[in-house]
Specification:
This protein is α+β, with helices and mostly antiparallel strands. Helix content is 49%, strand content 17%. Helix 13 runs antiparallel to helix 21 and helix 23 runs antiparallel to helix 24.
Amino acid sequence: MWKNYFKVSLRNLSKRKLYTGINILGLTVAIASFLAISLYIYHEATYDSMYADSDRVVRFGQRFAMAGEEQVVSMTPSALVPTMMEELEEVEVGTLIFDVGIFSSVLVDAGQGNQEENKFAYVDENFFEVFDLEKLVGQDGELLAEPNQIVLTKSTAEKYYRNINSGIGQVLKIDGKDYTVTGVVEDFPSNSHLDFDFLASFKTHRHGTNPEWSPANYYSYAKLIPNADREQFAQKLDLLVEKYFGEEMRSYGFEVGILFQPLTSIYLGDSQLKEMKPAADIKNLYIFGMVAILLIIIGIINYVNLATAEATERNKEVGLRKVLGAGRVQLFGQFISESFILSIFSMALSILLLFLFKSQFEDFGGIPLNTELLLSPIGVSTEIGLIIFIAFFSGYYPSLVLSGLEPLQALGKRVLGAKGGPWLRRSLVVFQFFVSISLLVATLIVKQQLEYLQSVNLGYDRESVVALNFQYNMRELIPALKNEIKREGVALSASLGNAMPHFIQAGYSVTPGGDNDKDFMITGFAVDHDMVKTIGLNLIAGSDFTDQDIDQSKAYEEKQEMNVIFNEAAIKELGWTPEESIGRRIVYNGVNSVIKGVVENFYFNSLHHQVGALGIFIQPREANWLLVKMPKGNLTSNLAKMEEVWKGFFPERPFAYRFLDEEYGKMYQAEQKIGQIFGLFAAIAIGIACMGLFGLVSYVALRRTREISIRKVLGAQVYDVLKVLSADFFMLLGLSAVMAIFFGIWFSNQWLEGFANKTEVSPWIFVLAILLVGFISFLTIGYRTIKVFVQDPAKTLKDD
C-alpha cells in the first residue's frame, strides 16, 4: 500500500513542478540552516567535554574583596596545586599551566631560522593525566619529566619537521634556549578553552622547582576523586588560603579566597579576568536555537500555504478517488506520503549543501563545522526525527482537509471556503513576515550598536598608534629603540606600558594612609614617563610625569613616595575633586604615593562595563608593550623605517606590529559574529517567505486568470491588476510589521542591557526593515503579476 502511495506521490510531484520546486527549495534552505545552527550550538555547548572524566575536573581562581567590591581572577599562585595534592584528599591529581603568550611571543628555531609563535606554555608532568590529548609519539611518564623538554602538537610537528616522528629527540631552540622534543600529541580541539602548539616542561620555569604563593600568574586545575564532597572541599580551600597567604593579603587590604568551577562551565560561565579564551554568553545559544526553529517553521508554513491554496486544483482528483471507493485514511496516507518524499529529498539536499559549503560557513561563522556529526548515529537519529517532524506538521493539515472533502463538494467548483482555509493561510503569512522583519530588525540593531562602539569617544587617541610586543630579556634595549625611532622621525611620541590602553586588567588597591581613610580596588597601568602624551589622555588637573619621577620599585625599596596619576573615577572614590586631590598622599598597592595629576575618564576595558577607578604609575620593568604614536601620512614608509630600526636592535626577532584601533575592534568580534549570523538568517527567512509568497500569488493569479483577462480587455493596466492582487498581501505585511516593532523594542532592551554604554535605537531601523521586506515582496508579487498579465486575453477567455 505504502509503495503505491509513494509511486503516485512521485508522479503528482513531478507534474506540479512549480509547487514541488518552491517547497523543496524552501525546505532545503530551512533544514540546512537548522542543521548548521545545530552544529554551531553543539560545538559551543560541548566545550571541554572531550576530556576523560571532564565532570570531575575543576579550575581554580582567586576572589579578591575590598570595601564591598569583589573581583575574580582566573589565575592562581604556583604553590596552590602542589600544596593541594599534598594536603587535600579530594584531589586525585592536579596540574598547572603558565601561558607565556599572555605576556609575549617566543622565537622558535628548528634550524631554518627564527619564527615567532604565540601559543607556548609551560605545563607540569601531570598535564596529560588531566587533559588526555591523544599521544601520537612518545612514552607516558617521559614526555615532560625533566627540564628543557617539550611536546609539540601534530600540526606544529608537521610544520617544523617532515612528519610527526622526525622531530623526536631533536633540539628545538626557544628564545635561544635548547629544548628536546620528547613527544607529539593531537591538536587541541577547537572547542577546548586550552589552545597551545608548544608544551614545555614546567620544571624549566623558575617556579617549577620552587613554587611560591606570589605572583599569581598560573592556571591551576585538579581532577577530584569520584563523588568528592565539593562543599567540604571548598571549606578546606578556605583554610588553606588562610594558612598560607591570608594574612599577607590582608596587609595589602584584600580579603582573598580560592574558588573553583567545573571545567565544562568555563566557556559558557561567568567571565573572569585574564581568561585564556574569551567566554561566550549562553544567551546567544538560546537565541540561535530559537532562530533555527523559526526557520524550520517558516519552511513548514510554505508547504501548508501552498498545499491548501492548491486544494482547488486537486479537488477533482479527490472527488474521483472517493467515487472509486477510496477512504479518508487512504487519501490521508496518499497526501502525507507526498510530504514525506519532499522532506526526505530536502534533507538529503541540505546535508549535501553543508558538505559542499563547509569551508564557506566556517569562514563566515569563525568556527569549524563538524559535518561528520551529520553521519554519526546521533546525527542520523536527529535527521530522521526532523524528517518525521517536518513531514507530519507540514502535511497534516492539508492532508486532513483534502481527505475530508465529500465527493460532491470535491467535484464542485468551490473548495476550502470553509473551515478557515483562507484565514489559516493569512495567519501563516503574517507569521512568516513577522519572523523575517524581526530578524532584519535584530540585525540592524546589532549593527547600529557595533557602529556606536567604533565611533564613541574613548577618551584616548587610538588612531595611528602602533603597538610592539617585546619580552623581558629585551627590556634593556627598548629605551634606546624608543629614542632611535623618535630621532628617525617615525614616532611623534613613544611609551612603555604593561598593557594596551583599550584592555587594562592588572588589579591593585588603595588603602587607608596619608590623607585618605578609604580602601577600594583599583586597576593599575604601569608605564614610563610618556604614556599620557603618547595616547593623548586629557589631563584635567595637576601635571604629567617627568623624567624626575621615580618608579614603583625604587619607591618601595628606598621607602620613598612615588607620584601617580589617577582618573576621575578614582578621585571620585576618594571623595575629592580633581583640583583638591593634587598633592594629597595615599597608599597605592602598599607604596606611599602622591597624586600628581588627574586625567579625564577613558575606556580602558570593554564598553560592556562602566569606567572604573584607574591609577597610572611609573614602572617600566613591568612593561611588555611599546606604544608608538606615528605621524600622519606615509604610513608604509614610516613602518619600513621603523622595521629597519627594530632590526638594528633585534635582528633575530621578527618585526610584528599591531594597530591600536584594530586591536580595539577585535574586542567585539563576538558581537560582530552575531550580527553577521543574524543578517545571514534574516536574508534566508526573507527568501523562504518570498518563495511562499511567490507560490501563493501564482495560485491566486491562476484562479483569477479570467478576471485579469477581462480587466485587461476593459483597459486595465499592469498597475491596476497588481493593486488588486497585492492588496490583501500588503495588509498582512502591515500586521506583521506592527508585531515586529514590538519584538524589536523587546530585543533592543535585551541585547543592549549587556552594554554599560549603548546607542539609542533609531526608529529608522524599523522603517528600513519594513520597507526592505515590503519592497522585496512587491517585486515578488509584481513579477508573477506581469507573467499573468502578458498572456493573450483571447486565448485565456477562450480556454476558460
